[in-house]
Amino acid sequence: MARVYNFSAGPATLPEEVLEQVRDDLLDWRGTGMSVMEMSHRGKAFVSIAEQAEADLRELLAVPDDYEVLFLQGGAAGQFAGVPLNILGDKAAADYVVTGNWGKKARKEAGKYCDVRTAAATEDQGFTDLPPQSAWDLSANAGYVHYTSNETIQGVEFDWTPDSGDVPLVSDMSSNFLSKPVDVAAHGVIYAGAQKNVGPAGVTVVIVRKDLLGRARADTPMVLDYQAQAEADSMLNTPPCFAWYVAGLTFQWLKRQGGLEAIAERNARKAEKLYGFIDGSDFYSNPVAPGARSRMNVPFLLADDNLNATFLEEADKAGLSTLKGHRSVGGMRASIYNAMPEAGVDALIDFMRDFERRNG
Ligand SMILES: *Cc1c(COP(=O)(O)O)cnc(C)c1O
């Protein structure tokens, strides 16, 4: 068996310790004689897994008691609809801050349910920067303000918490969730699909302030209804049991790493190394403004596009997998989530240096 360094944007690499635990538990979870995939979600065993995962997540992120934590299905894309359905209340409009492809998609989906306004956007700059808070045109009567804390495709990340005044702040944190401490109390809703930084695809975490519950539109599908799911401990219907369990193992792994402060430090170091190398080279480039660069997804271009295919082929042979950039930006993208070891980033930089020497 040979594991590679997997730079996929999602589904993405998981900690090896977590995969080993899954393997060890697979046929017989703690003497139950069955796999987590095979047990009733209402049984004692799974309920203990679910409760432990929530407790660990609350501890890691320091989630205040006046917030519900939900484990839902339908991905982050499901929450593009879930947010307006649950949060608008008697408001007819919502403000969107659009800093990349995912924010655009979120705004488009919300447009089915309300009047979407663009409070700020960086599309005319090719999504290579963040709009400063002072330039946001927020509406006083918006039901909420939505932003994407990390744009997975463009590699643009907020390293500050926006101020939405009295209007609930909503964040799609799919691709930097649990990569650093976050001020949960500044947000009305935080949501994240698991498959970037937390676990396998299939489970979506929603953290919602309790005073925002109970205002869902009457025609909200029950599986997207935050209040109904909160009352049912996210088990209004069969939850994504296995994905929830693996996410729980990742939370425990994160605690063993020293929690979010420690992982944030490591993530910053990994990103600084890679950007530092790119900036010091004439052969590679990254177009994002330094203050807006993502510590999770690092897109980069080669000086000559014609070398892209060779780069990817040789990287693959060197055990550096899935570096192709998203089609909308081209070039390469190295996703270096929590589970990417520092040695993986070092190996990538060594390969890039050698490739440049041979082709630059
Ligand atoms: C991947 C991603 C999504 C979409 O997630 P799904 O779980 O596929 O719906 C949404 N937002 C961001 C920031 C993402 O990275």
Walkthrough of the structure:
The longest helix is centred in the last third of the chain and has 21 residues, at 259-279. This protein has helices at residues 16-25, 44-61, 75-87, 101-110, 226-231, 241-256, 259-279, 308-317, 342-359, and strands at 5-6, 67-72, 93-98, 115-121, 142-148, 150-151, 156-157, 169-172, 189-193, 204-209, 284-285, 297-302, 320-321, 332-335. It has a 7-stranded mixed β-sheet. By secondary structure, it is α/β, with parallel strands linked by helices. Helix content is 34%, strand content 17%. The protein has 2 domains: 16-256, Aspartate Aminotransferase, domain 2 (3-Layer(aba) Sandwich); 259-359, Alpha-Beta Complex (Aspartate Aminotransferase, domain 1). The mean pLDDT is 97. Pyridoxal-5'-phosphate (PLP) binds next to helix 3. Pyridoxal-5'-phosphate is lined by residues 10, 75-77, 102, 148, 152, 172, 174-175, 193, 196.
Overall radius of gyration:
21 Å
Strand tally: 14
How far apart the termini lie comes to 34 Å
The CATH class of the largest domain turns out to be: Alpha Beta
**Strands side by side in the biggest sheet:** 2-10-9-8-5-3-4
In this entry the ligands are: pyridoxal-5'-phosphate
The CATH topology of the largest domain is Aspartate Aminotransferase, domain 2
Give the proportion of residues in helices: 25-40%
Structural category is: alpha/beta
What overall geometry do the principal axes of the alpha carbons give? globular
Task: Describe the main β-sheet briefly.
Answer: 7 strands, mixed
